[in-house]
Amino acid sequence: MRTFWHRYIFLLFGLIVLNGCAEDTKRKVETAAISFTKEGELSLYKANSDSLISQYNIEIAESDYETQTGLMYRDSMKENEAMLFVFSDLAYHSFYMKNTKIPLDILFIDENLKIVSLKENAQPFDETGISSEFPVQYVLEINAGQCKLHNISVGDRIIYTQL
Fold it and tell me: What is the rounded CA–CA span in Å between residue 106 and residue 42?
């Protein structure tokens, strides 16, 4: 009889411990908000008139981690903010919107700082690849609608300075 009660108490204790563990797995993991860090300034110019289209404060993605993460997990970006990806070599690049919460216009830029292709209104969380279509050395991500608002098109160019 004593063995029965020991087993019963042990089983009861085990169920309580397991129930407590089950509660722990339901906790939501919170990630810290990522804020914009101004690392430079960028100006966009019209190809045919050389007139200033728009100016942006930029965050620069150069390391592997920065280029892989980009604007993921950001809740918003101000109208005059953008992210410039700087690659060490001229190559075809593909982007997607995994874990990206804000719609973007994506500008693909060659080694001469000229826009060679663009994708307007890339949708949040869409994991479909967006190809540069041409070899590029830079990619600029701006809020969706900026291309239409400022009439940005292939052939326009950028100039940027790093702080």
Answer: 15
The span from the CA of 142 to the CA of 46, in Å, is 17
Q: Which amino acid is at 8?
A: Y
CA 148, distance to chain mean position in Å, is: 21
10-24, 87-101, 120-134, 139-153 — which is least confidently predicted? 10-24
Q: Both tokens of residue 150?
A: 């400022």
Task: Supply the pLDDT for residue 151.
Answer: 96
* CATH (residue range 40-162): 2.60.120.1140
The contacts found for 8-13 with CB under 8 angstroms, 24 or more apart, are: none
CA 95 remoteness from chain centre: 9
The arithmetic mean of pLDDT across residues 21-45, rounded, is 76
Give the integer Cα–Cα distance in Å for 138 and 152.
16
